[in-house]
Amino acid sequence: MIKSERKTIFREDLCTRCGICFNKCPVLELPIEEAKKEIIRLIEGKQSKYVLSKCNTCFSCNLYCPENANPYQLILERWNDLYNKRGVPPLYTFVCPTRQGNIWQLLNVFLSTQEKKWILKWMNNTPQSNDIVLLIGNYTHLFPFIIGGSKILDYFTPVDLIDQWEGGAYLYQGGYLDLVQKIAYRTKQDFDEWNTKNIVAALDAVEYIFQEAHPKHMNIEHQQSFSSLQQWLLDNIKSEELKIENPLNMAITVHDNCYSKVLGGKYWNIAREILKKCGCEIKEMRHNKEDSLCCGFGAGASWVKNISIPFDIIHEGIKKFREAEETGANALVSYCGGCIYLLWATKELMGSKIDLFHIIEVVRMAMGEKLDYPQVHIERAWDIIAIITYVWILSLLQKRFYIKKITYDQNKSTFRPKNFYLLKFIRNAFKSSLMKKIFRKIFLLLTKLLNTREKIIPL
Ligand code: SF4
Ligand code: SF4
């Protein structure tokens, strides 16, 4: 039961209707007069011409607004209104842990025995009051090998509850604000039951959600202290608790995720400091930090047609790789686990040669830990591509829906694997290089034909 009302974060009283937010938006780049009309349409709750169908939910407009009016949260409010009218596209089952056929359940079919052992341990851990909890979260769960078996885990009690929905971080970005409030309340109950004081989130986005978005937007205060794994890594590298035994001497470029644009950009600097300490030289992309482009995930937030969502996402992800390749760096590094699974899928589909690491992997390599790179990532990318294809095919026959259940049902678990014959057939087909090649060509052709993201407004 929700016991409090959400707060309004958009400051209509401060907004001068200047249009700068959508004019500077790296995705929309609306002419200024059109941008002014669009912000008025959004404020008045009238039919949006561009933003609600094209926004990549990247947070940048909040940084562009000279009045600190938070236009991003206005977009989220309007998407929340749309959700109440039209529900979510059937493909969204993919990221709903409480629905049958979600990615975590489907991935169970392909996890290795070692990965299952890690995950089961993390799912069954019950923290004690003096433990430092590491929230593994829904996205790190998809590639547990980036941290499983590392010395880094010795410092924490890792907890992996997929029905905590990363605190609602990815639903927040899609504007599902009423649902995020329910999740805020549910996670508060979990944390209070654990009676623990210190919680470290594997994703920066999750630290922000618990520390800032839940109290300030959802009106739900947590009693615990939150920090990010990135900050912990930097502090422990500086104190030499984590020793850099093997400086990497690698030129890299950094993907700044959407949530990194909050809190004055503190996450941009933490990531870069860690990478430099690991021996990396940083080559910036054309769009970086406040202007950084989305990994593609956000393109699904402003969905117009269910059929187009995967192609919109990959279309946007390809832009990121093109910019990364232009830098001449050896590797693209993401410090968000939510981005990296889609970036790997994009890399495999477009055939990009640039290496791709999660920042935890970079630290582990610099510490002298051995990784099974890139093989394990390539296999997981094709697991994910098979799952996306399978869910996309099914979704063509399904209807929009509303997310009714927030909490995972232990008795009718949506986590247990079933005999997903079609999924297994698709994944087996991807074991053949010829089939991969044919699939890539078809996918990229459909990306050209079906994506809804090409030219936004004729200039
Ligand atoms: S939200 Fe900010 S940038 Fe956008 S129109 Fe209002 S004042 Fe201008
Ligand atoms: S969130 Fe990003 S993509 Fe959306 S309008 Fe703002 S700047 Fe543009």
Shape: globular
Radius of gyration: 21 Å
Strand segment tally: 8
- What strand line-up does the widest sheet have? 2-1-3-4
Strand content: 5-15%
The number of distinct helices, counting runs of at least 4 residues, comes to: 19
Summarize the biggest pleated sheet: 4 strands, parallel
Structural summary, described in words:
The chain is an alpha/beta fold and 459 residues long. The protein folds into two domains: 20-86, no CATH class; 91-449, no CATH class. The protein is 46% helix and 7% strand. The chain has 19 helices and eight strands. The chain has helices spanning 20-24, 32-43, 51-54, 60-64, 71-86, 103-107, 113-124, 137-140, 169-173, 177-194, 204-216, 229-238, 266-277, 309-326, 337-350, 359-367, 375-395, 421-429, 433-450; strands spanning 132-135, 157-159, 198-201, 225-228, 250-255, 280-282, 331-334, 355-358. The strands form two sheets. It has a four-stranded parallel beta sheet. A four-stranded parallel beta sheet has the order 6-5-7-8, sandwiched between helices. Helix 12 (229-238) crosses helix 13 (266-277) and helix 14 packs across helix 15. The longest helix has 21 residues, at 375-395. 49% of the residues are buried. Mean pLDDT is 94; it is low at 455-459. The chain binds iron/sulfur cluster (SF4) (2 copies). One iron/sulfur cluster (SF4) is lined by residues 15-21, 39, 65, 67, 69, 71.
